[in-house]
Specification:
Chain lengths: 305, 124
């Protein structure tokens, strides 16, 4: 009786122990559960790699089912091992994807930065180009000014040459009938009083008018900017005041006649000197004849430039 | 006594037939070897984590080959499934290492480029 009871108790205990031993999960399964739990807690793995996380979950479920059904068998341990490795696989791929994303973002930022730099360089280049264009335009304008200056200089030179030519021609024309001298006060045309006037009068002789026409024509050919002074001179016979007045009137008459022949009025003035500027001896008839004269002084124009 | 004999007589050929019916897992062997080779080719030997997985894959392939030689095709099959998974993991770990190196290089390149741009007068 006692022995039977003891055997019965032993049998129950043994059964319990065996049952307990069967209920303990293999180390591989414990490790797989922990690994999967860790990966599942970190949401980023499931988020980045849901497909492999799902495969790991199914594999763990298969390991659990195998353990449930068969206990700690080699098959259960194989399934648990695969569940662990699939979990790790899902994690590795998720981490790789995260690295790739970060690399992509870094490269994108680098490209954006490069683009900005290129744009900045292009803008600076455009500014330099604009500055160059402005400088170029300024240079062109300077060149035009210089060219214009050269043209003006050439024109002025031509004008002077023309004036000199005309003066020479005028002098040659006058030399045919009058004394023409070049003095410091200008070109002096001397006309004898007897040729121009009736004695003691200020009326022009008809022949004088022909000569003065020639003079006027010559003066018109002269430099149009030159000033002309008509000077009247007498000999020393008679009263000084009378001679002064006569010389003044004669000068005036010649001046007016020249103006009537086309010489600009503002170019010509007249002045009487009486006998004060004798050029010959008043004691001889010939000397006095030379002293009675009209001098037309052409003063060269002062250079304007 | 007789009944036990019967059972043994019926069960023995069944068990034998069962053992003999599991074909050699040649396809699984090829798959595992392929995974192991791929892992080596992408540089699993150069990354510590990948190196460990690769070693496990190789060990299990060689255990499976021994099991096949001993006629235990079923065990070999299970080992080759594990070996293939380890080979695939080794490959993924090698790629993870490469991705990490790439990221570090990109950061370094980016810093270099910034310095160059600033040197060329770029506006930060």
């Amino acid at each position: 009786m006692n022995t039977k009871r003891t055997i019965a108790i032993f049998g129950v205990t043994l059964g319990t122990i065996v049952g307990c031993a069967a209920a303990l999960p293999p180390q591989d399964l414990v490790t797989a559960r922990n690994a999967y739990g860790r990966a599942a807690n970190d949401g980023s793995t499931a988020q980045r790699n849901p497909r492999d996380m799902d495969a790991a979950r199914k594999q763990l479920a298969a390991a659990e089912a195998s353990f449930e059904e068969n206990g700690d068998t080699q098959g259960t341990r194989d399934q648990a091992y695969l569940a662990l490795r699939k979990t790790e696989y899902a994690e590795v791929l998720a981490r790789t994807a995260r690295s790739d994303e970060a690399t992509g973002a870094t490269v994108d930022a680098m490209h954006a930065d490069e683009k900005k730099t290129v744009a900045g360089t292009a803008a600076a280049l455009a500014r330099s180009k604009a500055e160059l264009a402005t400088q170029d335009a300024a240079l062109t304008a300077q060149n035009v000014t210089i060219a214009n200056g050269k043209v003006a200089l050439k024109d002025e030179k031509a004008r002077r040459e023309e004036a000199e030519k005309r003066a020479a021609q005028a002098a040659a024309d006058l030399a045919k009938f009058a004394s023409v001298k070049q003095e410091t006060r200008g070109m002096v045309i001397t006309l004898s009083g007897s040729v121009l006037f009736v004695t003691a009068k200020a009326d022009l002789l008809p022949a004088a008018q022909l000569k003065l026409n020639d003079v006027a024509n010559a003066l018109i050919k002269e430099d149009p900017l030159s000033k002309i002074v008509v000077e009247g001179h007498t000999d020393s016979q008679g009263q000084a005041a009378y001679n002064q007045d006569l010389s003044q009137r004669r000068a005036q008459v010649v001046r007016d006649y020249l103006v009537s022949r086309g010489i600009a009025a503002d170019r010509v003035t007249s002045q009487g000197f009486g006998p004060s500027r004798s050029i010959a001896d008043n004691n001889s008839a010939e000397g006095r004849a030379n002293n009675r004269r009209v001098e037309i002084v052409v003063q060269p124009s002062t250079p304007t430039q | 006594m007789n009944s036990i004999l019967y059972v043994v007589m019926i069960a023995a050929p069944l068990l034998g037939a069962c053992g003999a019916s599991f074909p050699p897992p040649t396809q699984r062997l090829a798959d595992a070897q392929s995974a192991e080779r791929s892992a080596r080719e992408v540089g699993a030997n150069d990354a510590p984590a990948a190196q460990l997985s690769l070693k496990l894959s190789q060990d299990q392939i060689s255990q499976a080959e021994k099991a096949m030689a001993a006629g235990d095709n079923e065990r070999a099959d299970a080992l080759l499934i594990r070996a293939k998974m380890d080979g695939e993991l080794a490959l993924a770990q090698a790629r993870e290492k490469t991705a990490s190196v790439d990221h570090k290089e990109a950061i370094s390149d980016s810093a270099d480029q910034k310095a160059t741009n600033v040197g060329q007068g770029a506006v930060k």
